[in-house]
Amino acid sequence: MLIYEQCSCVHKMLQEIDYWLKMSTNMGSGFYGGLNQRFFGGSGSSGSSLVGGTSLRRQARSDLIDFSNDQNLVESQDDQIEMSTMIHSNLIDYLKTFQIVCSKLVNLFHSFSSPNLVWKMVNILSFILEKNTESDQQLIECLNQLNINKLLQLNSEQVNEALIDMLKQLLAHQPNSPIILEMCVSLLDHCLTKTQHIDDTITFWVFTMRVTANENPSKISLKNLFMKFCVSYGSVKKEQLFIEFLKVAQECALIDGFNTQQEIVQVLDFAYQKFRLEVEHENQLQKMREDKRRQRSLSGSHSEQESGNDDYDDSDFNDDSFMYEKKLNILHIAHIIIWKAINEKGVTLQDITLMGHDAVRFILDAQKKFILLATAYLTQNRVQRTMPTSSSFFTYLITFIDRIIIADKNWFMTEILSVLHRE
Amino acid sequence: MPDPNSKDEEEQNRQDGARQLIQLLFQKYLPLQNVEQWKEEPESFIEQEDDNYLMLEYDMDAEMTLSLLSFQLIDKLIEKFYTTTFPFIQNTLLQSYFTGNLKLQSELEEDALLSIVCMLGKIQKDNKTPKDQQLDVCFVLDMIKQSKWDNILFQRRYIHILLQWVKLIPKSKFVHYYNFVLENL
């Protein structure tokens, strides 16, 4: 009956200590020295024991807590900081606190369903977790009892946010832990399936992909998650979501998530299809722009030619300010895959292992359509210089093609340039 | 208003309305009215309590229960007439309560009296009351622990007092209370 109030009280007491610790940090490391110099004529307070010294000072000056006086305010802060630092360092067992609070709150999570209260309880846990920088295994054992799915069923944005914050912190702290990764995957799976709080969720997806250690035994569940949702989120219309999804795909490539020949071919085909759609869309806008210009020219308006800034008239592209960012992120997928084959001097998949040149040739063949399209785009399309990310996209595109040429010049000449020449 | 410095004894002891009102309100109207809900549906009770704290930010809201209205009124009376109400609460009400001289009808009335300690924590924190002029909350907490701990209603009050006094509790005793709450969780 009292668990919620007791946990809130523990939280509030920890916050009080934390407040003074932060105050100490904000004031800088020279705080004590400077303060003692100013108010104690340089002798400081180190002559007395911490507690004794403090109480003596209090006895000497009864108006210590009178905040209306600046000097007293600083003096009081000095005491508070000293005591709080000591309490934090020596007297509070944060692991024990977490073990007790977590085990008690787990029961409440089963019986409480109010989003406000659940949100507060998750925040209490997160706050105590922040203070635990050691004993990871024991923390994980406690968290294992937490039923994330039950909390997600509340479908509350604030609970979702609090859970994401907590899991982010945990995963960053323990990227090797399969239990924490499984909790993250559970949350992602739930929210991606139900399209709940999708902006936050997809950002968390990218975070999870980036932070999880390569050695995490449950890494496979990230790949399975990607495979489960690649069709639905790979065709999402909302640009920012799509870009975040592309980042997930990049991370999946980086952690060797695509580990069969078929998966490699599929993901490169996905990149090709998406790049093609983007190029087609851009060409369409370009064509519209040229038609408009032609019409203007026929109607006798020569202002564009006179001003000489036709390269900068991007008004038709304004509705697609993410055009280069999208292409850039698609390009990253293909680039990561070839870069890994070159850098790691081989490709080890579940169904085939290729070394050296064979590995590079395998990847080049798998992304031939993509490279053809990218090279054609580079040679044929004009840069819309005022559009965001144009510069980094073209720099990156040139780097990509340059890497292909360096990797296998003959292949590039026969499979790409000659084909483009024929076309 | 009483004048403690007056030579006239009558002036010194003059009953002021604020003190009388506090005594009347805490005994008659402040006690928790929904204590059964707290025992049977703690979740909705806590949620309602959160709403109540929010409501206290506003003046005399029409939605307020009688208990909440009394809480707000007592809080204001203490704030407005602090020089007479605080000594009255500290030296008359609480002292006579802890020495067994104040006879209260029920545990809910006792809890209501102790809830005034919560109010004082907030008021003294806001007023930045000097340490030596603050209520000795450690005494109150220790008394609850010693003589009332077998009743869960007072365990709850203990937690609520700590919550309101967390910034004022001497840091030398802070860990003692922290560990006590944790051990009782």
Number of strands of chain A: 2
Principal-axes shape call of chain A: elongated
Query: What strand line-up does the widest sheet of chain A have?
Result: 1-2
Structural class of chain B: mainly alpha
H and E string of chain B: HHHHHHHHHH
Rg measurement of chain B, Å = 17 Å
Largest interface (CB < 8 Å)? A-B, 43 and 32 residues
Secondary structural class of chain A: mainly alpha
**Unreliable sequence segments of chain A:** 29-75, 304-312
Record the SSE blueprint:
The complex is a heterodimer of chains A (about 425) and B (about 180).
Chain A: H1 3-27, H2 31-40, H3 50-60, H4 70-91, H5 94-111, H6 115-131, H7 136-143, H8 148-152, H9 157-173, H10 178-194, H11 198-211, H12 220-234, H13 239-254, H14 261-298, H15 303-307, H16 323-343, E1 346-348, E2 353-355, H17 356-366, H18 368-380, H19 390-407, H20 409-422
Helix pairs in contact in A: 1-4, 1-5, 1-6, 2-4, 5-6, 5-7, 6-9, 9-10, 9-11, 10-11, 10-12, 11-13, 12-13, 13-16, 14-16, 14-18, 16-17, 16-19, 18-19, 18-20, 19-20
Chain B: H1 9-13, H2 17-28, H3 35-40, H4 42-55, H5 66-80, H6 82-98, H7 107-126, H8 137-147, H9 152-165, H10 171-183
Helix pairs in contact in B: 2-5, 2-6, 5-6, 5-7, 6-7, 7-9, 8-9
